[in-house]
Amino acid sequence: MMKTDRPSGSRTRQTKFARMKAIVYEKYGPPEVLQLKEVEKPVPREDEVLIKVRAASVTFGDLAAVKGKPLMVRFTLGLREPKYQIPGKDVAGEVEAIGANIKQFQPGDAVFGDLSECGWGAFAEYVSVPENAIVHKPAKISFEEAAAVPESAVVALQGLRELGHIQPGQKVLINGASGGIGTFAVQIAKSFGTHVTGVCSTRNLDLVRSIGADLVIDYTKEDFTQNGESYDLILATAGYRSLFDYRRALAPGGHYVATGGDMAQIFQPMLLGPWLSTDGRKMTNLAMKPNRNDLTFIKELIEAGKVKPVIDKCFPLSEVPDALRYYGQGRSRGKVIVTMG
Ligand SMILES: NC(=O)c1ccc[n+]([C@@H]2O[C@H](COP(=O)([O-])OP(=O)(O)OC[C@H]3O[C@@H](n4cnc5c(N)ncnc54)[C@H](OP(=O)(O)O)[C@@H]3O)[C@@H](O)[C@H]2O)c1
User: Fold this and answer.
1) Any ligand 1 atom below 6 A from CB of 201
2) How far apart are CA 27 and CA 276, in angstroms?
């Protein structure tokens, strides 16, 4: 039985037993556990907004939610089986109906947001969400571009600003500059008036230059931890280096922030970070929290023309398993998007 039943409360007329297409899973596993099904279309509660989904993006959170790995995700998503049966974290779409208590949105508004703290469900034709999970979409970007933003751009912003204390004039290095988070990180760091070096592989050098990096380093040809340069802030979206390497590349007083990579990249800063945070250098890692103010800040950067989402590839709703497999290879150039046709 799908967990999509919703009491009524909508200000627009709803057919109570209307159906919609959705990607559904009932047990954790590889992307093959996902199935395209017809399920009951949600009806918004009094404090909810019904969104007609136009696009969703594939995030690390979706991959973890579907696999149930790392195991710690099961503490919030269900120990034995998924609590929410329609995955999909980042959404962009149009408001179709609103509950009686909704003040900030009207039917027809274009919105986007992160649904990971309110039941997920973006891989579907419709999703009903509390209004504090969404903000108005920047008018100058498409729904596909808007769906690319919530998780990846907020990780980049929180890493650079909250933990990295980014300041104008600093030398900033982004390792993993060509991926979903990295392409936002390069642009957000530039918007703070910093000098940005992006690290990526040969095939992505032009991409990273095109989004504003002042310098690019091809990690297949040059080791940025051994070239004598040092940086005030290093953000590692694809870590894959030891903490000692990163520390060597930090200027005195510099900050290193790990946001991704393998498990070692997450646990090394947690365990060793305090011991290596000396001489004013700080070694930390980020646990991103969805934050509406941060999303609004990024929306303003997009409206000011300082940030433009980079899209690698779009998949239709029926091909969400392929989209997850593609993203899971870890070679995305920008964001992977799911479109509703
Ligand atoms: N901290 C948090 O709260 C949080 C939240 C969400 C996600 N994450 C983490 O973020 C990571 C995923 O980030 P994403 O969505 O940006 O990934 P992504 O879109 O899959 O990007 C991966 C990028 O990493 C690059 N890359 C691979 N190996 C590299 C290396 N050795 N050096 C430099 N770049 C390399 C790839 O470029 P090439 O093909 O050119 O190598 C690719 O562009 C995951 O590890 C996840 O754990 C963290």
Assistant:
1) yes
2) 41
Helix (H, G, I), strand (E, B) or coil at 126: strand
The CB of 219 under 6 Å from ligand 1? The reply is yes
As a three-state string, the secondary structure of 143-197 is HHHHHCCHHHHHHHHHHHHHHCCCCCCCEEEEECCCCHHHHHHHHHHHHCCCEEE
Dist CA 241 CA 244 (whole Å): 8
Distance of CA 235 to the CA centre of its chain: 15
Q: Are 46 and 99 in contact (CB under 8 A)?
A: yes
Q: Which of 11, 40, 4, 19 is CA-nearest to residue 105?
A: 11
Instruction: Give pTM, 2 decimals.
Output: 0.94
**Coil, helix or strand at residue 257:** strand
Instruction: Take residue 142 and report the two structure tokens written for it.
Output: 């498409």
Q: How far is the CA of 325 from the centre of ligand 1 (A)?
A: 15
**Of the candidates 3, 185, 178, 1, the residue with the CA atom closest to the CA atom of residue 86:** 3
Cβ(339) – ligand 1 distance below 6 Å: no
Whether 179 is in the pocket of ligand 1, judged by its Cβ within 6 Å, is yes
Q: pLDDT digit string (tens) for 155-176? A: 999 999 999 999 999 999 999 9
